[in-house]
Amino acid sequence: MELLPCAVARALAAPGPGRGGAAPSPMHRHRPLSRPILKRSAAVGAVAVSRRGPVARRSRWSTLVTAAYNTGTADLVDFNWESLGFQLVPTDFMYIMRCWSDGVFTKGELVPYGPIELNPAAAVLNYGQGLLEGLRAHRKEDGSILLFRPDENALRMRVGADRLCMPAPSVEQFLEAIKLTILANKRWVPPTGKGSLYIRPLLIGSGAILGVASAPQYTFAVFVCPVGHYFKDGLSPISLLTEEEYHRAAPGGTGYIKTIGNYASVVSAHKRAKERGHSDVLYLDPVHRKFVEEVSSCNIFMVKVCMYVLDFAQIDFLCKSI
Length: 322
Description:
It contains five helices and 17 strands. By secondary structure, the chain is of the alpha+beta class. The longest helix is centred in the middle third of the chain and has 14 residues, at about 150-165. The chain is globular and about 50 Å long.
């Protein structure tokens, strides 16, 4: 689809940073060739994600299963859920797990939510060696808490870690960390229909290093926060400003993974769009600068309507409009 510069697009959005925790989208023709590819193995229903070898296997049906945690009717915090937006609300606990140069993560633990101590020479602070994920937990009327395909977020983090030369938690470690963090903060899961609990897993190079290289230590952390709709108007059409100067991703780059460095670069374009009365930015591809690439904070779906332009002067069997 070709767009004119400075065109304004409107779309119904599925909001949330990182596309609300959805699985990686199919590779576009201008995406980097180094992106890990999903390969189906000889075993029926098995899938491996690999660049230099298999890093994960799962049943093809597992992506259709929703994880459910039965928590009973837990007491909720005294909070004005009607005013809930998308901003940081500190909760009770977070999860921490560390890994050294041997690539093996130690047993994680829940700790009170608060600052994480880092050396000024940490790889994440100096060279941006870090990844993030994002997904949500929803409370049902019976008190149980639901997640949608959290294993896909775990696999996406492993793909990103491979690209940045980082060790990553196994899918099982990732899911266990998510579960423990949610249950420790279950009183912060909003009532049904009032919002959701946003879950933010982080994988960072926390070890100190001076030269450009992999860090000697890594930290995997999970914190949670109750949120409402990402956009202030909720599930309503939003106005998008097409960006003609900056690009979100480029062939051979890291646009296909959720590295932390991908996000600071969109702040300037997003601020400019806000000043012009728009909700977000629509990016074009960096090669041809005319094909739709993505929106910075949500998915975008387009429906192409087929229209037949008829020359009524040449067609005499159609009734002309009055």
